Amino acid sequence: MHIDIVIVNWNSGDFLKKCIKSVFTEKNINLINKVIVIDNASKDNSLEGLVKNDKLVFIKNEQNLGFAKACNQGFEISDAAYVLLLNPDAQLLEATLQDCYQYMEAHSSIDILGCQLLDDDNNITASCGRFPTPKSFFYRSLGLTNLFPKVFTPPELMYDWDHLESRYVDQIIGAFMFIRKNVFEKIGYFDERFFVYSEELDFSKRLANAGGKSYYNADIKAIHSCHGSTDSVKAYRLFLNNRSRLLCAKKHFSKSGYLLTLISTLFFEPVSRIFFSLIKFKFREIIDIVKAYALLFKFVLLG
Predict the structure, then answer these.
(1) SS3 content of the chain, % helix, strand, coil (to 5)
(2) How far apart are CA 188 and CA 140, in angstroms?
(3) What sign for the dihedral angle of Cα 270, 124, 217, 84?
(4) Which residues constitute the domain of residue 256?
(5) How many other C-beta atoms lie within 10 A of the C-beta of residue 209?
(6) Where are the alpha helices (DSSP H) in the chain?
(7) How many whole angstroms from its chain centre is CA 78?
(8) Calpha distance 46→71 (Å, rounded)
(9) How many CB atoms are closer than 10 A to CB 274?
C-alpha cells in the first residue's frame, strides 16, 4: 500500500471512467493505498458508472473550488509514501505505476517523477516545462515562441524538445506528477491563489528553491488524451491562464520583471493573438480573445 492517487474531476465525462479503470488493475492493486477523486461540482454524468472498489474515496465539493484547492484536499488525506497526481483524461499502462514506484525507490534524490505521455494516436506530448523568465513571457506575448521556438524558447512547456531522452527538468506537468509524500512536509501544498494553471509550476519552483529535484523518465509511459475540461469556455480559460501567469510573475519575479510581464500580457499579447487569428481566418477566436482580456483588465484594475 505505497501509493495514493489523486484525481480532480470537473465535467470529464467518460474520461474519468477510463482513467479509474486503468488504475484498478491486478498488477496495480497491491501498490495502491487509495484513489481519491475530488469532484468540483460537476454537472455531467462523469461520476456515474465508475468501477466499484473499496479503495476508491470521493470528495464532492458543492462548488468549483479550483484545481489547486481540490488537489490539496486530496493531498491532505493522503497517508502513503507516494502521491500520484493524475488527470481524469489520463490512463495508466500496464507497467506505469509499478515502474514509477520502483524507480523512485531506487533514486532517493528525486522528489517528483514524470513519464512520457502519449496522446490517443500514440504521439509523444509535451509533459515537461522550464521555469519562465520575464524575457520568455515577453517573447511569447509577441508570438515569437510560436513562430521561432528554436530561437525564442517557450517559457513553460518544452514544445521545442522531443521528450525522447530521460533528464532532470525544471517541472513536470500536473497531468501526471508522481510525488514523494515528504515533499509536502518540506514546502507545503499547492498555492490556492492559483485557481487553475501554473499551480504545479509554482510548486516545482518552490521545490527547486529548497534544493529538490524533478526528473522526466522517457522509459515510463502513460496516456494523456489532452482533453481540457475548460474547452467549452475558451474565453474564461484564456483569462484564467493569463491570470495565473501574472500571479506567478508577481510571486517569483523582481518588480521590474513583473512589470514587463504585466505590460506585455495586457497590451502586446492580445494584439498578437488577434493578428494570428486574422491571418488564419479564425474570426470566432477574436471574440474569445476580446472577452478574455477584458476579464484580465478587470482583474488587474480591481487588484
Answers:
(1) 40, 20, 40
(2) 30
(3) positive
(4) 234-302
(5) 10
(6) 14-23, 67-77, 96-106, 134-141, 144-147, 182-187, 199-209, 234-252, 255-263, 269-279, 283-302
(7) 19
(8) 18
(9) 15
Does residue 297 form part of some domain? yes
Q: Which amino acid is at 137?
A: F
Across the chain, mean pLDDT equals 95
State which of 206, 224, 242 marks the end of a domain.
Answer: 224
pLDDT for res 279 = 94
Which one is predicted more confidently, 303 or 280? 280
117 in helix, strand or coil?
strand
Question: CA nearest 44: which of 7, 5, 75, 13?
Answer: 13
Cell 491562464 found at:
241
pLDDT of residue 108: 97
Kindly indicate the confidence band of residue 49, based on its pLDDT and cuts at 50, 70 and 90.
confident
Mean pLDDT of 116-138: 96
Contact present, 140 and 154 (Cβ < 8 Å): yes
Structural domain count of the chain: 2
pLDDT digits (tens, 9 = 90+) for 246-280: 999 999 999 999 999 999 999 999 999 999 999 99
SS3 246: helix
Question: Same structural domain for residues 255 and 220?
Answer: no
**For the chain, counts of helices (H) and of strands (E):** 11, 12
Per-residue cell: 89:
483524461
